[in-house]
Write a structure and sequence with these properties.
Blueprint lengths: L3 H4 L8 H15 L8 H19 L1 H9 L1 H6 L31 H17 L6 H4 L11 H11 L23 H36 L1 H38 L8 H19 L6 H12 L1 E2 L4 E2 L3 H8 L2 H26 L30 H14 L4 H6 L8 H10 L24 H11 L10 H6 L1
Antiparallel strand pairs: 1-2
Helix pairs in contact: 2-3, 3-4
Length: about 475
């Protein structure tokens, strides 16, 4: 059977207009009325052209024909015999004698083998010009560039055979049933793909076997290795020559007098002597004094701690631990100052009306920093004025100029510690109503009340006071 494209003398990518034009031209040429000398042959050729045009003019028929063209033309295994060359006998050195161009030589035997494989693919090539582009094996004295092209092609060989004759199913028998046809095509493609893969591996392995024993390739490899060794030797000699030149250049150079260390050292000693004579030894020690100043500026005398840099020193001064330590230190200094004042004025030590569990001393009128006012109203007004002013007495301000202002929490505590004669003005949360002793917390006040039985009933002014009582 002849291909429909060959009958109409068209390529497989021809469009509908080209197919129609080719059919009209051949129909006029092969019509029986135009060939009266041999009407039987003309009739047969004209029918072949008509069948080809009927298939290719219908798009669905043409698509199906393109998908199964090889199988239709060459049939199944019962109709087509594969005449592929068996390449396995050539995987041995016993198939040739010597590396010459004689009939049994290496280059003649394998040139014939690869030409036979190329001719097998010629029948399945749509473009016949592709066959002429296949590089040949050459002879013993062929140039290496041509040899390289040959092995580049055959080391990546891909057969043009379709292997449709190996299909287990004939799609012509199931034409019209798309589901069965699809399943048959899938199974046929598996068989074809496997056959093509096996053939490609056979030919590629044969090309690698031949290349490994080709004297032309071995000679080129030895030539390249000798060039590499020669270039490496030249580079090594050039490097050694440059090293010797640099060594000779450094040996011939004379060092300038001003670059010698002995001369520089003498000049430095002379300069130091002149500075010591003019400014004294203080200039030489200035650097060490600056270091001591920097060390002292980063030392916290409150916490007795040395900081590494100014930023760390500032962060330390703002820390809660530093401020708490500084506050306790100021309280200790203030107590010592008060003790010195009492000793200077000859004042007796304050007597306790009653003692609590923690040994705290209640405020007395003899202390210079307490309010001597006895009237509760005047005492309350005095406390409110002192709370607004937030300033210590004149004598204490003169004696301790650096004293910090009491915080809001401390002022509330001082106000709560002051006793009062009126039960309605007493801070019941921190003061005993019987002995008028103030305490720092409610727990201490309750312990005092339990120990002394000073608890009394006081009328509450409002709900908040009643809740506290």
């Amino acid at each position: 059977m002849k291909c429909h494209y060959e009958v109409l003398q068209l390529s497989q990518d021809a469009d509908d207009s080209e197919i129609k034009t080719a059919y009209r031209r051949l129909a006029l040429k092969l019509h029986p009325d135009k060939n009266l000398d041999n009407p039987e042959l003309a009739k047969e050729q004209f029918q072949t052209v008509q069948q080809a045009y009927e298939v290719l003019s219908d798009r669905q028929e043409r698509a199906w024909y393109d998908a199964h063209r090889d199988q239709i033309l060459r049939g199944t295994d019962s109709e087509f015999q594969d005449q592929s060359l068996d390449v396995f006998p050539y995987f041995t050195s016993s198939c040739f004698k010597g590396f010459g161009d004689d009939a049994q030589g290496f280059y003649t035997i394998y040139r014939t083998v690869f030409e036979a494989i190329a001719k097998e693919d010629l029948e399945f090539m749509d473009d016949k010009e592709e066959f002429s582009e296949i590089p040949g094996f050459g002879c013993a004295d062929s140039d290496y560039e041509a040899v390289k092209l040959f092995y580049d092609y055959w080391m990546s060989y891909s057969t043009k055979k379709s292997y449709t004759w190996l299909d287990p199913y004939d799609v012509r028998d199931v034409k019209g049933n798309r589901k069965v046809e699809k399943i048959a095509d899938k199974e046929n493609k598996k068989v074809r793909t496997k056959a093509r893969k096996e053939r490609n591996e056979e030919v590629r392995k044969l090309a690698a076997f031949v290349r490994k024993r080709d004297k032309r390739v071995l000679a080129y490899k030895d030539q390249m290795e000798s060039k590499v060794l020669e270039n490496r030797k030249k580079h090594q000699e050039l490097g050694n020559r440059k090293k010797l030149e640099r060594a000779e250049m450094h040996a011939n150079e004379k060092q300038a007098e001003w670059l010698k260390f002995d001369n520089v050292q003498d000049e430095l000693e002379e300069i130091e002597a002149q500075l010591a004579e003019q400014f004294g030894e203080s200039l030489l020690l200035e650097g060490s004094e600056e270091d001591d100043d920097e060390y002292n500026s980063l030392f916290c005398r409150v916490c007795m701690k040395q900081l590494k840099n100014p930023t760390a020193f500032q962060n330390h001064e703002m820390s809660k631990k530093h401020r708490e330590t500084n506050r306790r230190l100021q309280e200790i200094l203030l107590e010592e100052q008060r003790a010195r004042q009492q000793h200077a004025f000859g004042l007796p030590k304050p007597e306790l009306n009653c003692s609590d569990s923690d040994g705290e001393q209640p405020p007395t009128e003899a202390e210079p920093d307490e309010n001597p006012v006895s009237d509760p109203d005047e005492q309350q007004s005095f406390n409110s004025n002192s709370k607004k002013s937030n300033k210590p007495p004149v004598e204490e301000r003169e004696e301790i100029p650096k004293q910090k202002k009491p915080t809001k929490k401390r002022r509330k505590k001082d106000k709560a510690d002051e006793p009062s004669g009126d039960h309605n003005d007493i801070d019941l949360a921190h003061c005993c109503a019987t002995c008028k002793c103030s305490f720092s917390s409610k727990n201490k006040l309750f312990d005092h009340l339990k120990a002394t039985n000073h608890g009394v009933y006081l009328p509450a002014k409002d709900k908040r006071t009643r809740g506290k009582n």
